[in-house]
Amino acid sequence: MLMTKDGYCQNNIARAQSLGHDVTEEWLEAIEQMSQAELAPYGVVFVSPRLSTQAFNTLRSAVADGGSLQQYVASGGILVLNVAANAGNQNDVAPGGVDYQATGPHDVETFLTPGHPYITGAGYGGYSLVESDFDYWGHTDHGHLTSLPGGATSIIGNVDGVSLAHFEYGSGDVLVGTLTIGWAEGGEARGKAQYNMIQYAAALVPEPSTIGLLTVGLLILTKRRRKAA
Asked: I need a surface site. Which of 53, 84, 107, 189 has the fewest CB within 10 A?
């Protein structure tokens, strides 16, 4: 698992490590410059919330067409984007042109798709979450998402819009939200939401045999491009 060192990251990193995940920490700016061969070994790339304006600019570049994270998820990677921040509205924060509207903060959430595995915890030993688990984290989210791609599942929302969504992109998956996951300790309720975020993302990673085939395909494609050049 590759986790950013930007924003409120330390609690997320510590939690992932405590759950037994092999975590590599890196600045978003460095991730934006990584090649697909360098990103391929990571099943999940996890971006923590409270990015600066500069970090959002870097994220925009990374998730734009041809960017490192856009190619990573299109090739089968799992991308978790926690975009809650105090940096105002931000466009194009996820592959496909998803926008973040800083209409928050909000302290109450509603389940839009109660049967989604992130909420039920089914299939990966997660918590069965209830709406009150998202009450008054001080604050629970910092806005909502717009311009979600067709087919996206809106999982959780606030009075202004969607605060957590999941969609397939290419051969991979994107989990993007405005929740303050890892923003602070937050107690047991926020801890359950954080646990499910990390464990659900990890559960989406393809089996090792599939990853091996994708890696081989990437290496063959790289060699062919070098020969063509």
From this structure: 53
Residues in the chain, total: 229
Q: Which two tokens stand for residue 212?
A: 């091996």
Q: Which of these, 141, 172, 171, 174, lies nearest to 159 by C-alpha position? A: 141
Per-domain residue ranges of the chain: 2-228
What's the sign of the alpha-carbon dihedral 121, 183, 50, 76? negative
Q: How far apart are CA 229 and CA 210, in angstroms?
A: 29
Instruction: Tell me the backbone φ, ψ of residue 93, rounded to 5 degrees.
Output: -95, -5
Q: What residue has token string 């990584």?
A: 34
- Tens of pLDDT along 161-212? 999 999 999 999 999 999 999 986 555 568 999 999 999 999 999 887 444 4
Q: Tell me the backbone φ, ψ of residue 212, rounded to 5 degrees.
A: -60, -40
> Which pTM value belongs to this model?
0.89
Q: Using an 8 Å Cβ cutoff, are 217 and 206 in contact?
A: no
Rounded-to-integer distance, Cα 166 and Cα 153, Å: 5
CA-closest candidate to residue 181, choices 199, 169, 167, 168: 199
2-228 CATH: 3.40.50.880
Sequence-ordered alpha helix ranges (H) in 76-207: 117-120, 187-203
